[in-house]
Amino acid sequence: MRPQLHKLPTDPDSSFIFRELKLNHFPHPWHFHKEFELVLIDKSSGTRFIGDNVGRFNDGDLCLIGPYIPHLYRNDEIFYHSKKKLTAQSIFIHFTEDSLSKDFFELPEMKVVQTLLAKSSQVVEIHGQTKIKATKLLYEMRNDPPVKRLLKFIELLITLGESNESTTLLTFNFSTLPKSGSERINTALQFILKNFRSEVSIAGIAGQLNMSVPAFSRYFKNHTRKTFTDYVTEVRIGYACKLLIENSLSISEIGYKSGFENLSNFYRHFKKVKNMVPKDYRKQFLSN
Length: 288
Prior knowledge:
Layout (H helix, E strand, L loop, with lengths): L3 E2 L11 E7 L7 E2 L3 E8 L2 E5 L2 E5 L4 E4 L5 E5 L2 H4 L6 E8 L15 H9 L4 E3 L1 H14 L4 H17 L3 E3 L15 H12 L6 H7 L4 H12 L3 H19 L4 H7 L5 H12 L3 H9 L2
Parallel strand pairs: 1-3
Antiparallel strand pairs: 2-9, 4-7, 4-9, 5-6, 5-8, 7-10, 10-11
Helix pairs in contact: 2-4, 3-4, 6-7, 8-11
């Protein structure tokens, strides 16, 4: 059983899908689709699961996700329980290699775009001035008629293709996985997000899914390419990064609030995931 296959709606007036979401929180479960997806987080925060990558997302995050790569954007708990009126807003484009007619991306002028689309199988996260320019184009496309939107879409792809301000996120090609759907892995991810601040029991989630611990461990690694323990650790580190940036809690307090039993454990795992200690991570952002 695999992530859910989503069949996306088509637009009779356009060769690709351009949409905006404005909700209380992002609704989608662990899912994939055959289309490329360029997604801008306009306003929101939470934990991002894309293939075997776990990380934070915040306002302005921009990623190009290749076809058939499972992904899930889950908002922070405050979006689900706060009495404040919080909104989760995003702009996204879905398209296929045939969206602009068959073999369009094979034109010599589109070589940089061909390279970009190939890289999207590992998910491309865009940074710097390229992200600023791409975001501006996405905002302009909101009110454009179909013809102008098409021209800006092509400009957008070329802008991303020509840039070196990007990183790839995945270590495994998820487009090779069999394509069938299930809610089990979504339940497991939601369980992690609700419980990572305290002791997370693999037996607990295995029991919820009516699976033995060994069977669940194999199932989880088969879907995420990481062990359950490593996945929980990365969620905790992502949350710790958020606290290091956003407030002045001591590093030991942040470690405990993120679910680590002791400070040495927190330091060891943080350095393994981020290649630096928490103090240096905080200093890096304060200096910007």
